[in-house]
Amino acid sequence: MKTPTISVYNRQRRVRFPLAWLRRVAEEALGLCLGESADGRFALAQLGEVEVSVVSDAVIARVHKEFMGIEGATDVITFDHGEIVVSAETAVANAGEFGGAVEEELALYVVHGLLHLNGFTDDRAAQARKMDRVQQRLLRVCLEKNPTPQNL
What whole-number distance in Å separates Cα of residue 123 and Cα of residue 62? Predict the structure, then answer.
């Protein structure tokens, strides 16, 4: 099984977060996600590169409308060619709603996107439950190995 490279870019200015930390989490998550495939195809291993872009709500809303025909911002959009787009502002809102840290929310989005690349889907309840169980387990490992900056 070959390992794609993963790059993480901060393409927004409103939300501050430790980019170097998120890059370490993304590397960890990539390694873990390579071993998980919902459909047995392990498509993630076939990619040469995965690119994660952290963007604003305005940018992700445009991507959401253009590529999925859905109005409004969302947390994460994954493209089969290996691009994962995540919203920093949605991460702030969800962290506030669920009582977590923004960093952990961004890490969750990265894991979620990587699992999508490896065949996991969440458009049906049973599939979403399966994906959620796997992503929570992998996220826990990532955060144990890379504690959130405020928990250092």
Answer: 21
